Amino acid sequence: MSTDSKVIxxxxxxxxxxxxxxxxxxAYAKKADDEKMPYAARLxxxxxxxxxxxxxxxLKVMDGIKSTAENLQDAISGETFEFTKMYxxxxxxxxxxxxxxxxxxxxxANEAEKVHAELYKKAAANPGQAAPKVYVCKVxxxxxxxxxxxxxxxxxxxxxxxxxxx
Length: 166
Prior knowledge:
The protein is mainly alpha-helical and about 170 residues long. The chain has five helices and three strands, in the order H-H-H-H-E-E-H-E. The chain folds into three domains: about 5-60, Ferritin, core subunit, four-helix bundle (Ferritin, Up-down Bundle); about 65-125, Ferritin, CATH 1.20.1260; about 130-165, Rubrerythrin, domain 2, CATH 2.20.28.10. A three-stranded antiparallel sheet has the order 2-1-3. Strand 1 (about 135) and strand 2 form a beta hairpin. The longest helix has 30 residues, at about 5-35.
């Protein structure tokens, strides 16, 4: 890994930009699917995958991928920061601005991040254990193990329609 602070900053910025482009292009692909535009959808998905390749490469050059135990600890730290500091501050800013949609959006993400941190802690305690089925709520990002709940415990969505198995 480089020791030059500007190179390190550039790698971090490139990683962030490529990561954001990936997620944005996947959202664009979904919209193109909804609008029955398959060529645009496929192109967005292909570009999203290319951006993932770039992001992973930048992360590797930054020496950002460690052992699974270290990666789990990093994930726990990141998720914990999000639900203890980042999202609570964003929720307060949205409340102060009177932006109910942003406040609700941040609240759902905050609640999901709490679950994510707990699941990472569980995995860190026994990373080699058999993997249960994992279901993700496509509305709020809640992760549920083993079975689909009757409704999402965070956003209340009916599970059968809104949970995806991974």
